[in-house]
Amino acid sequence: MADVSLRKVVKRYDDVEAVRGIDLDIADHEFIVLVGPSGCGKSTTLRMIAGLEDISDGDIMIGGDVVNDVPPKDRDIAMVFQNYALYPHMTVAENMSFGLRLKHYPKAEIKARVTEAARLLDITDLIDRKPKQLSGGQRQRVAMGRAIVRNPKVFLFDEPLSNLDAKLRVQMRIEIKKVHQKVRTTTVYVTHDQVEAMTLADRVVVMNKGRIEQIGTPNELYHKPATRFVAGFIGSPAMNFIPCRLEDAGGTLQIRLADRLAFPLPPARAARYNALPRTEKLLLGLRPEHLTEAHAHLEPGVETFDTVLEVTEPMGMETLVYFGLEGTPVCGRVNPNAGAKDGAPMRLAMDLNNMHLLNEETGVVL
Amino acid sequence: MSSVTIDKAAPTRTVKYGSMSRDRKWALRWSYFFLTLFAIFSLLPPIYMLITSLKSSAEISAATNPWWVFHPTLENYVGLLTSNQFLRFFWNSALVSIFVVTITMLISVPAAFALARMRFWGSATLATGVFLTYLIPDSLLFIPLFKVFALFGDWTGIQLINRWYVLLFIYPTLTVPFCTWIMIGYFASIPKELDEAAIIDGASWFQTLTRIFIPVALPGLIAATIFAFTVSWAQFLYPLVFTTSTDQLVLPVGIITTLIKGDVFNWGQIMTGALLGAAPPLIIYAFLMDYYIAGLTAGATKG
User: Fold this and answer.
1) Per the CATH hierarchy, to which homologous superfamily does domain B75-301 belong?
2) What is the rounded distance in angstroms from the CA atom of residue A214 to the CA atom of residue A220?
3) Which intervals hold domain ABC transmembrane type-1 (chain B) (predicted)?
4) Which residues of B touch A78 (CB under 8 A)?
5) In angstroms, what separates the C-alpha of B188 from chain A's closest C-alpha?
6) Which residues of A touch B201 (CB under 8 A)?
């Protein structure tokens, strides 16, 4: 077990910078998820921690030691790959014990460790099978078992669930979380799936274009995104961004979305945004769940407006409604019994207590 | 009632059921026809050899039906298998082939691994270069190679020409490039994560090769082995040029040089010798056929 630190880590391929100076501190026992769209540098970062890629600049420390030039086998890490990377000619037990056998561990200890890991992952019955006789989920368990038996300082997961079908993915996600609760090994997990990131991580690192956009707990990222990228990336359906500007109207601050659509801001928000110049081009960031059907009794800060729905998507527990606001497509979430229909007019409520205000040019959340 | 109207409304089908299987049937008939033709064409020579090998010299020269044995005899087989000379050729061929296969594998497997996996400067060009050397015809090389060994003998005093083991230096120039090429294709089809997993598990490059790559690429390895064996077993031009003393000859050259005396062809023994010489590759192919095909196709599609 150990902490992991990245100091101004850079990865250059010829003239392309895949990772552009990353600083990251991962505490002992922590479960960190690197998330971002493809090509954001998350896998490269993981592979640099593993030692499978050289670092162009900066330092990587595992357990306080700089490991820049330490080969992968001496970093005391274990990695789980997207395509499992099980050795096809070895049985499950041989796959799991390969690393230990290379290090000449005593036979009894190897057997004990493999048995223990198999029990933990519930694959005791499969121990003598070859990988091709296993299902995708079972293979993924074996790959995790191979990591666990080594008892490494750090676990590295590279999109381990991407090859599984949706249902199994949810199941294995829970398994991974359970395993981490039991073994408590520092874990770095890479995924492009924000749901996986949110559900697994102690802290999520959102990456974009080779840089870290924001580091935080899942709730911090969801409720207090720092940038437009994070606000749009975390959450499904994504946050709405509606062009707007601030106005003073009779002593109160109001937000104008369109010529005939302006709402007074709740006092707490008004105080926070009051100092902003009124001319600035802004974006109102509002999650779909804060755009609901209008009720008779409105809480303070919830404003209603009328619109015509373009498309509705019944999801069962909720219905997603899509409509246009001055040409901007907007998504809301309404109660399935609220009577939302394609092409029908509807009165919706906007919860401004949960609004975000972004600078349109810089994308920074204000 | 409603079912009647639906029947009427249904469009008449112009496509007949089973047309797929009818097409298939015709395709099969044609393939059987051509395959049979091909089989007859390629099996006729060995059958004729077998028939001739069972005849006495008198019967071979007699004006009887050449496709039938009237007085079968094993005298040709007995004659060859009791001749020390023929056994010597056989032994030389076996020695050369086994050594060449070993040398080839020892060179081409690590070479292919390095070219397929260790990204180093110029590795891709080098891989193509290896294949290009295979494209140079052997008949172009035997004179320069002869010169090389002659000069080597002059300079060092070590005379390699007219020794069976000179072939151990020559054959690999034919087998190594092709085997390396097969193995590059095969190794390249192994997912990169597999060696990364091995490296993280603590394996060295050598251990990754011996404990992961070779077992996983075993079909390819067997295909390469069979190729190397066939090339060195059947090679004629080089041993004809490089070896002359009868005790140094390998089988193909030995049969020709000892069983043809002037213009007298000892057909019975020539055919017997050729048949016996064809036996080892045939036996090896028969046992490893499945591996061989799997090896070639995997290398071809994924390499």
Assistant:
1) MetI-like (1.10.3720.10)
2) 10
3) 90-288
4) 200
5) 15
6) 73, 98-99, 102, 146, 150
